[in-house]
C-alpha cells in the first residue's frame, strides 16, 4: 500500500493527533502561546513525526484536508482550555503553501473560528519565507484579509528561507520566529549570535514580536533575555506534549 493511500485512510480513521509546545514570555516566564504540531499515531509503527508524512501529504494534495483538521482541532482545543478557565494563550498553527493558496482558505478560517468560538486574536498562523514568497499579489490579499479578521501572522524559521527583507514591509506580519539553527549555535558561534541579535533588533524596530525557537539551555535563555527577545520555545521550557499534559502545565501557572 502506498503511503498516500495510507495517509488517506489515516485521515478517515482519525489517526492524527496534535502535540502542543508551550511558548514562554521571557520576561515573566509565563506561557503566552502554544504551537500545535501534528503527529501520526500509526497502528503498527507508533507515533510518527511530521517529517515522515507532511511532505508526502503536500505532494498528493492531502495536506488540504489534513490542514483543515489541524486548524479545527487546534482551535477547538484552545477554546476548550479558555472555557475551562485557563489563562488564554495564542494557538500557533503551521500553514503550508498549498493551504495558503487554496480558494477556500479564508472562508475555512472564518468558519472554524465561528464554529469553535475561538477569538481571532488568539489564532496565529505560522508561514515560512518560502511560503510567503510565492504569488506575492495573491498572498498579500489573503494576508490582509486575515489581518482584518484579527488573526495573527508569524514568519516561521526566520532567516533560513530564500527571500529578501522587502517582504517584511510588504506583508502585515506580527511576529518573527528565529530559526533554531541560529539559537542552537549562538553560544559557541559569534556569527550565529550576531544573526540572533540582528533579528531581535529588526523585530523591535519593526514592532514585531520575536520568538526564539529551539531554546535548550540556560545560557541561551539568559542571552535571549539580555538581547530583549520577547518569547522562547524549546526543550529548555518543554518538549511538545499531549493536550492533557499541556493543560496541566498551563494550570500550574508557569
Ligand atoms: O513537531 P516537529 O518539531 O517534528 O515538527 C517539524 C516540522 O513539521 C515543523 O517545523 C512544521 O514545519 C511541520 N509541521 C508540524 N505540524 C504541522 C502541521 O500541522 N501542518 C504543517 N503543514 N506542518 C506541520
Ligand atoms: O514549525 P517548526 O518546523 O519550526 O517546528 C519546530 C520543530 O522543532 C518541531 O518539530 C519541534 O519538535 C522541534 N523542536 C522544538 N523545540 C526544540 C528544541 O529545543 N530543540 C530541537 N532540536 N528541536 C526542537
Ligand atoms: Mn512552526
Ligand atoms: Na520553525
Automatic annotation (TrEMBL):
Gene Ontology biological process terms, A to Z: cellular response to nitric oxide
UniProt domain EAL: residue ranges: 1-254
GO molecular function annotations of the record: cyclic-guanylate-specific phosphodiesterase activity
Membrane-spanning intervals of the chain: none
UniProt name for this protein: Diguanylate cyclase/phosphodiesterase
Part of the whole protein covered: 305 to 558 of 570
Amino acid at each position: 500500500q502506498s503511503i498516500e493511500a495510507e495517509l488517506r485512510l489515516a485521515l478517515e480513521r482519525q489517526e492524527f493527533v496534535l502535540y502542543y509546545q508551550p511558548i514562554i514570555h521571557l520576561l515573566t516566564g509565563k506561557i503566552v502561546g502554544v504551537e500545535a504540531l501534528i503527529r501520526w499515531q500509526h497502528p503498527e509503527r507508533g507515533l510518527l513525526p511530521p517529517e515522515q508524512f507532511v511532505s508526502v501529504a503536500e505532494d498528493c494534495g492531502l495536506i488540504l484536508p489534513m490542514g483543515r483538521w489541524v486548524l479545527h482541532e487546534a482551535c477547538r482545543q484552545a477554546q476548550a482550555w479558555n472555557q475551562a478557565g485557563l489563562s488564554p494563550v495564542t494557538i500557533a498553527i503551521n500553514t503550508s503553501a498549498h493551504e495558503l493558496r487554496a480558494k477556500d482558505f479564508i472562508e475555512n478560517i472564518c468558519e472554524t473560528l465561528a464554529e469553535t468560538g475561538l477569538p481571532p486574536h488568539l489564532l496565529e498562523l505560522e508561514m515560512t519565507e518560502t511560503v510567503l514568497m510565492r504569488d506575492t499579489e495573491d498572498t498579500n490579499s489573503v494576508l490582509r484579509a486575515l489581518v482584518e479578521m484579527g488573526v495573527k501572522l508569524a514568519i516561521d524559521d526566520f532567516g533560513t528561507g530564500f527571500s529578501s527583507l522587502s517582504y517584511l514591509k510588504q506583508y502585515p506580519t506580527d511576529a518573527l520566529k528565529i530559526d533554531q539553527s541560529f539559537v542552537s549555535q549562538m553560544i559557541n558561534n559569534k556569527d550565529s549570535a550576531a544573526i540572533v541579535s540582528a533579528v531581535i533588533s529588526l523585530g523591535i524596530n519593526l514592532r514585531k514580536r520575536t520568538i526564539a525557537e529551539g531554546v535548550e539551555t540556560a545560557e541561551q535563555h539568559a542571552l535571549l533575555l539580555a538581547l530583549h527577545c520577547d518569547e522562547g520555545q524549546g526543550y529548555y521550557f518543554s518538549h511538545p506534549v499531549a493536550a492533557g499534559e499541556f493543560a496541566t502545565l498551563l494550570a500550574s501557572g508557569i
